[in-house]
Amino acid sequence: MQNGTDLYALDISGASFTKACGGPCTEGCVTLARIGEDAWALGDSKRPDVKPLRFTTEELDAAGIDPARFGLGA
Questions:
Q1: Interval 30-73: pLDDT, tens
Q2: CA neighbor of 73 nearest in space, from 60, 62, 50, 63
Q3: Residues 6+ apart with CB under 8 A from 4
Q4: Which of 4, 6, 19, 25 has its CA 20 to 30 A from that of 12?
Q5: Measuring CA to CA, which residue among 21, 3, 7 is closest to residue 51?
Q6: Whole-number Å distance between alpha carbons of 64 and 49
Q7: Element (H, E) at 53
Q8: The whole model's pTM is what?
Q9: For the chain, how big is the Rg over CA atoms in Å?
Q10: Strand order across the beta sheet in which 18-20 lies
């Protein structure tokens, strides 16, 4: 399992982010990419200049974020 510090050492330049919208996506869409075996990057498609936050699978679960909603498997 990764820890929070190690997550930011991972190269995400080739990560493929997927959107999950709760509606028409007029206010912003959350994007998610798997960046490692137990690592995820969470971004905002409306603010591409902001670096994505990074989480472990356990942290995503605790926050109520289900990768399946993005078409991704945990």
A1: 899 999 989 999 998 888 899 999 999 999 999 999 998 888 88
A2: 60
A3: 54, 56
A4: 25
A5: 7
A6: 25
A7: strand 53-55
A8: 0.81
A9: 12
A10: 18-20, 30-36, 39-44, 53-55
Confidence of residue 12 (pLDDT cuts 50, 70, 90): very high
Q: Are 28 and 46 in contact (CB under 8 A)?
A: yes
CA–CA separation, 25 vs 61, rounded Å? 23
Hey, how many other C-beta atoms are within 10 angstroms of the C-beta on 55? 22
Looking up tokens 């994007």, which residue turns up? 31
At residue 7, φ and ψ (nearest 5 deg) are: -60, -40
Q: Which residue in the block uniquely carries the two structure tokens 């989480």?
A: 55
Beta carbons within 10 angstroms of residue 14's beta carbon: 7
d(CA 74, CA 63): 14
Q: Is 47 exposed, middle or buried (0-12, 13-18, 19+ CB in 10 A)?
A: exposed
